[in-house]
Amino acid sequence: MGKFVITTRANGEFQFNLKAGNGQTILTSEGYTTKAAALNGIESVKTNSQDDGRYDRKESTSGKPYFTLKAGNGQIIGSSEMYESVSARENGIESVKKNASDADTDDQTS
Fold first, then answer.
1. Mean pLDDT, rounded, of the chain
2. Which residues have C-beta within 8 Å of that of residue 45, sequence separation ≥ 6?
3. How far apart, in whole angstroms, are the C-alpha atoms of residue 101 and residue 2?
4. What is the pLDDT of residues 1-43, one digit of tens each?
5. pTM for this structure?
6. Beta-sheet strands, E only, within the chain
7. What is the pLDDT of residue 1?
8. Distance between CA atoms of 65 and 86, rounded to whole angstroms?
9. Are 6 and 109 spatial neighbours (Cβ–Cβ below 8 Å)?
10. 3 state DSSP class of 96
11. First vs last C-alpha separation in the chain
C-alpha cells in the first residue's frame, strides 16, 4: 500500500512524496509554506489522481518522458521522476492512481 511522506526542505518549506508499496517515490509535490497547505495538497492528489485528464504527459529537454498531476484549477500538485520510456511513464501514472486514493500519511516533520 502506498503512503504520503511529509518532510521539511532545507529552506523550511514542506513537501510530500507519494511512495508506492515498494518504497519507490512515484510523485513529488511542490514546496509549501505551511504543513496545512501540504496536507491540502495531499487531499488534492487523492481527489485528482483518479482523473486521467489531470495528468500532463511531458518530455524533458533531454527527451525523457515524465508527468505532472494538476488540480482542477490547473495548478501542478505533483511531478514524477524522469522515465526511460513512454510505457514506463504510463506505468507510473497507473501506480499513482492505484496508490494515492487510500494512502496513509507519514508526517516526518515533527
1. 96
2. 4, 18, 27, 29, 69, 77, 78, 96, 100
3. 9
4. 899 999 999 999 999 999 999 999 999 999 999 999 999 999 9
5. 0.93
6. 3-8, 14-19, 25-28, 55-59, 65-70, 76-79, 104-107
7. 86
8. 6
9. yes
10. helix
11. 23
